[in-house]
């Protein structure tokens, strides 16, 4: 049976839930999560069964919207910041990718189609102000929420990035709870 949007293999279901394959496999083997065996000996999980399981058994996880996996693009030239932010968002059920500069941010925005971009203001080449402006002026990407983060907190920087179209603004170092709350609010349209 071909894998479609209505059926998940163990690896695809694990990725969908942002958990390990081993954990998902245990749920299937224990009978907690309904699955069936194909004639070729592969397990498949129906989308409806996975969605029911997620909403029932995994609904307690904070701020995770597993049924509609949200994608976040992290744009920062500091690899340490990238790793920290990736860890913060991916452990909360978001799918994340990174870009190290403004040019790469444009390419990844077109390919990855994020729901939200966490955007550093100062990077080599094209800075965050220009990235934000270009994304918000393009009718294909203007719907994407942009959360600007910076270590250079000034009234001028804040006013300038909000004027360029950013939907939110945070100062580095940002606490995990604050970041996730801002992301959640922006994705729900509460900001």
List the helices and strands and how they pair.
Layout: E1 7-8, H1 10-17, H2 21-30, E2 36-37, E3 43-46, H3 47-57, E4 71-75, H4 79-90, E5 95-99, H5 102-112, E6 116-120, H6 128-137, E7 145-150, H7 155-163, E8 168-171, H8 176-188
Parallel strand pairs: 4-5, 4-6, 6-7, 7-8
Antiparallel strand pairs: 1-3, 2-3
Short description:
This protein has 191 residues and is an alpha/beta fold. 44% of the residues lie in helices and 17% in strands. It is built from 8 helices and 8 strands, in the order E-H-H-E-E-H-E-H-E-H-E-H-E-H-E-H.
CATH architecture heading of the largest domain: 3-Layer(aba) Sandwich
User: How many structural domains in the coordinates?
Assistant: 2
Give a short account of the largest sheet.
5 strands, parallel
Average of per-residue pLDDT values: 86
Sketch the topology as an H/E string, one letter per element. EHHEEHEHEHEHEHEH
Any idea what the CATH superfamily of the largest domain is called? Answer: Response regulator
**Proportion of residues in extended strands:** 15-25%
CATH class of the largest domain: Alpha Beta
Outline, from the CA principal axes? elongated
Strand order of the largest sheet: 5-4-6-7-8
Q: Which class of secondary structure composition applies to the elements?
A: alpha/beta
Protein name: Response regulator
Domain Response regulatory: 71-187
GO biological process, one term: phosphorelay signal transduction system
Pfam families: HTH_17, Response_reg
């Amino acid at each position: 049976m071909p894998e479609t949007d209505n059926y998940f293999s163990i690896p695809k279901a694990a990725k969908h839930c942002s958990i390990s394959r081993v954990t998902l496999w245990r749920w299937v083997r224990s009978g907690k999560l309904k699955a069936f065996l194909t004639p070729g000996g592969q397990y498949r999980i129906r989308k409806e069964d996975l969605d029911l399981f997620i909403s029932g058994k995994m609904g307690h996880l904070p701020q995770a919207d597993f049924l509609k996996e949200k994608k976040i693009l992290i744009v920062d030239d500091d690899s340490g910041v990238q790793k920290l932010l990736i860890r913060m968002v991916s452990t909360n059920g978001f799918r994340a990718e990174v870009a190290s500069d403004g040019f790469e941010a444009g390419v990844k925005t077109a390919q990855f189609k994020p729901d939200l971009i966490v955007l550093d203001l100062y990077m080599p080449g094209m800075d965050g102000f220009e990235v934000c402006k270009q994304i918000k002026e393009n009718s294909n990407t203007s719907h994407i929420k942009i959360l600007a983060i910076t270590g250079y907190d000034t009234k001028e920087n804040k006013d300038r990035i909000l004027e360029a179209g950013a939907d939110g603004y945070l100062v580095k170092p940002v606490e995990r709870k604050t970041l996730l709350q801002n992301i959640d609010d922006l994705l729900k349209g509460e900001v």
